[in-house]
Design goal:
Blueprint lengths: L4 H19 L12 H11 L16 H11 L5 H28 L1 H13 L1 H7 L5 H19 L10 H24 L3 H23 L8 H31 L15 H9 L1 H5 L1 H11 L1 H20 L13 H28 L5 H21 L2 H6 L11 H9 L9 E3 L2 H8 L4 E2 L6 E2 L17 E2 L17 H8 L4 E7 H5 L5 H10 E3 L8 E7 L9 H4 L1
Parallel strand pairs: 1-2, 1-5
Antiparallel strand pairs: 3-4, 5-7, 6-7
Helix pairs in contact: 1-4, 1-5, 2-3, 3-4, 4-5, 4-6, 4-7, 5-15, 7-8, 7-9, 9-10, 9-14, 13-14, 13-15, 14-15, 15-16, 18-19
Length: 552
């Protein structure tokens, strides 16, 4: 359509924009519930104590990411920025890698659209702006995505590969398997994408045999991979049977918070339709366009995307957009190829119509290019993720824990009052102390209850620990009911409780405690703490008081 520098320039602009929304105001938000784990583990590693939380419990999820955070904490301030910066940089590297992969596989203009989709995809942006390990996982997933394709791209060809080509494909297969293992080390949900690639390997092996007969196995890397997998399966089952059963139980577990939301089979469908309605609605058309251009690539992209989405939708109970993040590049590449093809058709159509008039050929090409640019800009500007991306770099704090602490420090009468929080580790970090936790979900456990625990279980087979059980991250007692809190701290006469507004509005707070806070406690923050509410509950208070904060 035009010189290759134009798509290269556009990809550069996209990566710059994607980098901005991943980096801007990165350290201004207070820590969230999950990312602060890596801060404590990194601090513990720096002291040479191993991956320990303040409670003394071992925490090894995303241990490699915590090691990177350890380095960042020694170089960058404040802590919020130091913990999030590695994730943001991994997200930017992912953009660069996907741009290179899509350019190599499908050409420059497909790379423009594919890179744009990842640059503004809300879950990718969100995970790049918090200190978690999903962008780390995506980097390895993208390497496996490309290496896996290079392993299978010639499957079913009439002419078999020569010896040197077989060696190259085995090298690519080794890279793919290693990348899969590293991604699975970061997050176990990688195995849903491995399942999709396994189906691709099986079909590729069948295609080689169908095209060249059984003797082709000696030079068919997919067939050899399939045979190796079949032979290795009994050994894997024997050595990891306990771990696999535990993994299966964990995959089917629905935690307390997930039961509050739509976690049915259509969870991912509705989520993607809400974010990318055109891409999802026209997804079958996009895959069909790819199939007309390269049937092998169409099968590869369909299975890489479709198998994980099916498993997470219908088999695995715990839902979350981040769990299918590794599958999304396949959809983005298919849509990118179709968008590039559509833009090319539009360009040629307009050029042909203009060329039939008195306009010179070069002006016809220029006019066609301007039409395609205008249509593309309109499509991009009216896409929800692009519109939302402009609002992502927030400078204001949604939760202001430090402000809540300042309010307490300004009140001499609150000195020494026991302090509780819905997320004790955040109160521990920002207030320097915490005496109890209030989140109802923190009392949930799976498996068999210890001696003396209530025998009652729900339909999923979960039991609830007794009031006062130690919280995993800080070892502070979990007291979710007003009766339990008052029994523990009756001598103090009152308590302070910091709770995020959304936890009060959802099922994360005991109904009795919510009522007590609404009727008998003073809310100290007002609008000074963002969406964080700070309550002072005097036990002697019996007169109900109207709380405008909880009534809104």
């Amino acid at each position: 359509m035009t010189a290759r520098w134009v798509p290269g320039f556009l990809i550069g602009l996209i990566i710059l924009g994607g980098s901005y929304i991943r980096l801007a105001h990165l350290g201004t938000q207070d820590f969230t519930n999950d990312e602060i784990n890596h801060y404590y583990v990194a601090q513990s590693l720096d002291r040479g104590e191993g991956p320990l939380l303040p409670s003394g419990n071992v925490y090894q999820r995303g241990i490699d990411f915590s090691r990177v955070v350890r380095v960042s904490l020694n170089l960058v301030d404040p802590p919020e920025l130091a913990v999030r910066l590695p994730s943001a940089l991994f997200g930017i590297l992912g953009l660069l890698l996907l741009a290179a992969i899509s350019w190599r596989v499908a050409g420059p203009w497909a790379a423009v659209w594919t890179t744009l989709l990842l640059a503004v995809y809300p879950e990718a942006v969100s995970q790049s702006r918090i200190g978690r390990f999903y962008m780390h996982q995506l980097l390895f997933g993208l390497i496996a995505f490309y290496a896996g394709w290079q392993t299978l791209c010639d499957a079913g060809a009439r002419e078999g590969p020569d010896v040197s080509a077989v060696k190259r494909k085995w090298l690519w297969a080794a890279v793919a398997l290693l990348a899969f293992l590293l991604a699975a080390r970061v997050q176990i949900t990688t195995f849903s994408v491995v399942a999709g690639w396994g189906v691709c390997v099986t079909l590729a092996a069948m295609g080689d045999v169908a095209a060249r007969g059984w003797r082709s196995v000696s030079r068919s890397v997919p067939a050899q991979l399939l045979l190796l997998g079949v032979l290795a399966l009994p050994l894997v089952l024997l050595t990891t049977s306990g771990g696999l059963s535990e993994l299966a139980a964990s995959a089917g577990r629905v935690p307390h918070w997930a039961r509050l939301y739509n976690s049915g089979p259509r969870f991912y469908y509705w989520g993607l339709v809400d974010i990318l309605p055109v891409a999802v609605s026209l997804g079958p058309v996009a895959f069909l366009v790819v199939a007309l251009r390269n049937p092998r690539l169409a099968v590869y992209l369909t299975l890489w995307f479709g198998v994980p989405l099916t498993l997470h939708s219908f088999v695995l109970a715990w839902k979350g957009d981040r769990f299918v993040l590794l599958a999304m590049p396949a959809l983005f590449l298919a849509v990118g190829i179709a968008a590039a093809k559509g833009a090319g058709v539009l360009y040629r159509f307009v050029q042909e119509r203009l060329g039939r008039s008195f306009i010179r050929d070069r002006y016809a090409r220029l006019g066609a290019g301007l039409v395609v640019a205008a249509v593309s800009l309109w499509v991009v500007a009216t896409t929800d993720p692009v519109v939302d991306a402009r609002r992502v770099p927030r400078a204001d704090k949604l939760l202001r824990w430090a402000e809540a602490k300042a309010i307490v420090d300004e009140r001499p009468d609150l000195a020494g009052v026991p302090l509780g929080g819905s997320v004790p580790k955040l109160a521990f970090f920002y207030w320097g102390q915490v005496d109890f936790g209030t989140s109802a979900g923190a009392l949930e456990r799976s498996g068999n209850p210890p001696h003396g625990s209530p025998p009652d279980r729900d339909a999923m087979g979960f039991w609830w620990a007794e009031q006062g059980a130690p919280e995993f991250f800080t070892a502070t007692p979990i007291l979710t009911t007003p009766e339990a809190i008052r029994d523990r701290f009756d001598d103090a006469g009152s308590v302070l409780i910091g709770i995020e507004l959304w936890r009060l509005e959802s099922g994360h707070t005991d109904p009795g405690l919510r009522q007590v806070l609404s009727e008998q406690a003073d809310e100290l923050c007002g609008t000074r703490c963002g969406n964080l509410l700070l309550f002072h509950w005097r036990f002697e208070s019996a007169e109900p008081r109207f709380s405008p904060t909880l009534a809104r």
